[in-house]
Amino acid sequence: MSRVRPLAVTVLLLVALAAALALLLGGVALGVGFLAGYAGCWALFAAAAVSLRRVPARAVVPLILAGAVAVTATGLVAAPRTSTDSYRYAWDGRVQAAGISPYDHAPADAALSQLRDEWLFPDPAACAHDHGLFPLAHGTCTRINRPTVHTIYPPVAEGWFLLVHAAGPPDARHKALQTGAAALSLAVAGLLVTFLRRRGDPRQAALWAWCPAVPVEAVNNAHADVLAVLFSVAALAVISRRRVTGGVLLGLAIATKLLPAVLLPGALSGARRPRTILAVVAPALAVVGMLYLPYVLLSDGSVLGYLGGYAQEEGYDDAGAGGRYALLRLVLPDAWALPAVLLVMTAVTLTVWWHGDAERPWRGALFTTGTAFLLLTPGYSWYALLLVALVALDGRWEWLGIALAGAVAYVAGPVIGAAWVTGAYGAAALAVGAGWRARRRRDRRAVEWDDDGYGRPPGTSHRAADPEGSFRQGISSNAPREQHH
What we know:
The chain is built from 21 helices and two strands.
């Protein structure tokens, strides 16, 4: 009975989580109301993840995968609820299928009017009554956000949009992208389960498979970030043994969404020889360059599109213009925020690279990525999908608070105000600090216990008895710095 009860409790929590997500995504709540329901889903997710710790080992993998299917499927119950990015994806796929570079024309450009339909470009009557549409000239409108600027998505993402357009039925609309994103989300879950099972215990995979951010951001909103996450997880899983392969996969991740470039210090953890570094960096750069090259040759305009304008729009170049650098701006003048970010990230990058654990590159990648999020305080919640996957690889669940803070900023920030958003990121930072302190105290007690000669199997080291190690051991390791293959 004691072995059956944790399994039953976990199953019930997963059923409740799936039901809550389906109701949330199928409902009409927005802003603070949506955020409240979303927070409730996160509470159920946390309870299910804790309950999973007591589930018998033989039931863990089937339960994680079954839960992944149920949770992921909830993202398919409705059209995108909190983001319009997938409409741009659909448009870019349609433009490429017509033999036109997606980087050459904005959706509002009359040169592409022959590709418009009533789904992406509703009739004037709908334009007058639907406030969620974006206005164009002469009383027309579109579902595509920023319709007067060129796309910014890298080439692998553009290839994904074309593939979904070609594979989906003509009337699939948003469902084709959502279904493709659901398949990618489950692929990430399967990869995590397989990799973590080989290393010992796959339970950490539930931190991705059951996380509410996955059905909301990866599936319902169909963000291309999930494809970058798949390549990123694959890269970090193999890079300590197969550096060239890992570099290629990392290049594919960067060429999907530029954000995975922040993983590079973690991927190079402990690599000090130039040959070892080049084995990762050179393939990554080559892949990015080769994938951009066809679009460069076929496009009349810049393949970077609106990237520079997007950075300005989000306030990354001027801290006083937006909600970026919120935690730094509590203690520093606005003008100092960007230099402080550059200084801290340089220090973090060098620390992870020089002292990182070559056998656990995802640990340094999580530290670098999480630190970047806390310094930049981004306003878009789907960026944190990468962070969620890194948490699943490493098991340091306290970093998940950053993903929830991003949701506060994006979903309710315009309503509740900047102070609450700053508070959310501040709480996330405190959770990370508390997690670090708790692990350090636990490891100090373990060392003291070992020094007394008790509590450790004969012939084993402290590291073997406690493979997770302290925070410093999480960045550095006594393991060999480099592998040669």
